[in-house]
Specification:
Elements lengths: L1 H17 L1 H7 L19 H7 L2 H7 L19 E5 L5 E4 L3 E2 L7 E2 L8 E6 L6 E6 L5 E6 L9 E4 L4 E5 L1 H11 L32
Antiparallel strand pairs: 1-2, 1-9, 3-4, 4-8, 5-6, 6-7, 7-8
C-alpha cells in the first residue's frame, strides 16, 4: 500500500506543477505558481518553537503527535480561504480542496502547490504510512492516504492544530457587509392639520360654544 501511495503522490505533485496555470484559468483552484514566493526555510530551536506554540501545537508539529479525532476546531470549517502552517504561515491547502472524510480530521484532496509540502515513509505504526510535513519549517502536518475522492484519489489527513485558517479577502468583505447595520429610516412626516375655518368667511358654520 505504501508504495502505491508514494507513486500516486509523485504523479499528483508533478501534475500540480504542470497544470497550475490550467487550474487557475478554469477557476478550480487558485494557483500559487508565479504569485507566491517559493518556500524559504525557517529554522528554529526546540526552545523557540516551544515558546511560540501551544503545548498541543508543539506536540503535533514538532514531536509528530496526533490530535484526538473530532477535536479540531477546523474540522467543520466550511468558509472560503487558505489553510496555512501554524508554525511558519506557509500556505498549504485551499478550502475548495477540503472535503468531509468522516475520519475526524480535516481532509484535502490536493495541496495548494507541489512545493508546499514534503512526504516521507513513516514506520512508527504497525502499518506503514506516508507522513506529510511543511516544506518550509518541517512541521509535521499529518499523513496522506490513497482513499480520497477524484480527481486525485488522495486524502491528505491533517491535524487541525497544525493549521491556521486565513479567510479570503472577498469572504471577509462579504461578511463585513452582511454584518453592517442598515441605515436608520427617517420617520414618516406627519400630515399637517388643515387650517382652521375662518368664522367670518361666507358659508362658514357658526362657532361651537365652549362647554
Amino acid at each position: 500500500m505504501i508504495n502505491r501511495v508514494i507513486g500516486s503522490i509523485g504523479i499528483l505533485l508533478a501534475a500540480l506543477v504542470a497544470s497550475a496555470a490550467t487550474h487557475a484559468a478554469d477557476g478550480d483552484l487558485p494557483s500559487p505558481i508565479g504569485n507566491l514566493p517559493g518556500p524559504k526555510k525557517v529554522i528554529k530551536t526546540e526552545q523557540e518553537w516551544a515558546k511560540q506554540l501551544t503545548q498541543i501545537q508543539f506536540a503535533v508539529t514538532r514531536r509528530k503527535a496526533t490530535e484526538p479525532a473530532f477535536s479540531g476546531k477546523l474540522l467543520r470549517n466550511h468558509a472560503l480561504g487558505t489553510y496555512v502552517c501554524v508554525c511558519c504561515g506557509q500556505p498549504l491547502f485551499n478550502s475548495r480542496a477540503k472535503f468531509e472524510s468522516g475520519t475526524g480530521w480535516p481532509s484535502f484532496w490536493t495541496p495548494l502547490a507541489a512545493d508546499r509540502i514534503q512526504t516521507a515513509p513513516d514506520y512508527h505504526n504497525p502499518e506503514p504510512r506516508i507522513e506529510v510535513t511543511c516544506s518550509r519549517c518541517d512541521a509535521h502536518l499529518g499523513h496522506v492516504f490513497d482513499d480520497g475522492p477524484p480527481p486525485t484519489g488522495l486524502r491528505f489527513c491533517m491535524n487541525s492544530v497544525a493549521l491556521k485558517f486565513v479567510p479570503d479577502a472577498k469572504a471577509k468583505a462579504k461578511t463585513k457587509a452582511t454584518a453592517k447595520p442598515s441605515p436608520s429610516r427617517s420617520p414618516m412626516p406627519t400630515p399637517e392639520s388643515p387650517p382652521a375655518a375662518d368664522p367670518s368667511a361666507p358659508g362658514s358654520p357658526p362657532p361651537t360654544p365652549s362647554p
